[in-house]
């Protein structure tokens, strides 16, 4: 009986400790994404990208080249085309090594971007960005965004 109690006690401790480690990983990853969003998206400081994004960053959005260099190139062009570029983070959810971020992108298209001529048109659209974290940095990215709404607002489609 004592052996069973000891086994259950040890198993319970491993379960609790494992749950604590998982909760801590979620909190650490959410904090990482929060800092990344603040530094890179809100402050538009692309010099911070290497601090948060792995050089071999995998990008699943076909408009953005691979790696941290591809990330910087895409956002440098977007920031230049939209001087009042704004990002509003609304919610962060973490599960394991993945972090889901819901936010709103907005601004005024003043210069050409993605082949769309600058037209002074204001836009605002929502997106969910999904990041995989590896070794304390962003390793992979997927997104789901309201491209139809963005292109409609910019006059690309009616």
Automatic annotation (TrEMBL):
PANTHER family: ESTER CYCLASE, POLYKETIDE CYCLASE SNOAL-LIKE DOMAIN. GO terms for biological process: polyketide metabolic process. Gene3D superfamilies: 3.10.450.50. It comes from the Bacteria. The keyword Signal applies. Keywords: Signal. The keyword Signal applies. It comes from Geotalea daltonii (strain DSM 22248 / JCM 15807 / FRC-32) (Geobacter daltonii). Residues 1-23 form the signal peptide. SUPFAM superfamilies: NTF2-like. InterPro entries: Cyclase_SnoaL-like, NTF2-like_dom_sf. This is SnoaL-like polyketide cyclase. Coiled coil: none annotated.
């Amino acid at each position: 009986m004592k052996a069973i109690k000891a086994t259950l006690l040890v198993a319970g401790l491993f379960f609790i400790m494992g749950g604590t480690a998982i909760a801590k990983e979620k909190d650490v990853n959410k904090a990482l994404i929060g800092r990344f969003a603040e530094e890179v998206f809100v402050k538009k400081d692309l010099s911070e990208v290497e601090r948060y994004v792995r050089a071999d960053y995998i990008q699943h959005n076909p408009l953005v080249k691979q790696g941290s260099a591809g990330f910087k190139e895409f956002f440098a062009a977007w920031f230049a085309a939209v001087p009042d570029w704004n990002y509003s983070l609304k919610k962060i959810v973490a599960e394991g090594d993945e972090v889901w971020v819901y936010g709103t992108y907005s601004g005024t298209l003043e210069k050409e971007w993605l082949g769309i001529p600058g037209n002074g048109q204001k836009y605002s659209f929502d997106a969910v960005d999904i990041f995989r974290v590896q070794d304390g940095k962003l390793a992979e990215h997927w997104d789901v965004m309201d491209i139809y709404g963005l292109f409609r607002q910019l006059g690309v489609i009616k």
